[in-house]
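Below is how a single chain appears once it has passed through the pipeline. First comes the sequence as given, then the structure the pipeline wrote out for it. We keep one example in the README because the format questions we get most often are answered faster by looking than by reading.
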Amino acid sequence: MSALQEFTHQFQPATAPDLPTLLVLHGTGGSEHDLLPLGRLLCDGAALLSPRGRVVEHGMPRFFRRFAEGVFDLDDVRVRAGELAGFVTAAVAAHGLDAGRIVAVGYSNGANIAHATALLHPSLFQALVLLHPQHVLTPDPLPSLGSLPVFISAGERDPIVLRPDVEALVDVLARAGARVTTHWLPGGHSLSREETELAREWLACGRGTPGTAA
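Resulting structure:
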């Protein structure tokens, strides 16, 4: 089985030229269909690549295993990040995508596998959009992310992702060289219209470099 076939996924080709490909990564219990509408809102006309997490927890798809809420199986994280990197590389070859213009957009567990994959495979993504992420791992030594633009949104009343978890992630990414833009919003763990709009403006799809509008 090829790396592309290992993941149940959706691929929607670009309908406009000169746009990045968005790799959209769902949260726990989601599917390959969940974030396609978000991808279209963030970058209308871009190609969308949406895999389903291969780990199942109590019937809910995820991208890596955990021992408890916020306690992650780091060995599994490394394996799953490698699988996701292989999937992206295979999709680039299969669909003729620009390997230098892959933007990972993740929510919750999807955001966590996105930044873990970026830290473990630092040349894979052009930018990261992380919606309600938390710190997962700190590679030793830290990679150089080469000024990778990263957008983070978090909820001030999020019962799942607490402020220290987000701040730890921001610290790791910044020490690895990423250019991190963080937005704290008044809500909880659910996606909000405000953060979607902030992410869309930050991504500046078809209008410039990610992060230049922040």
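Residues 74-95 form the longest helix (22 residues).

See the next section for the split statistics.
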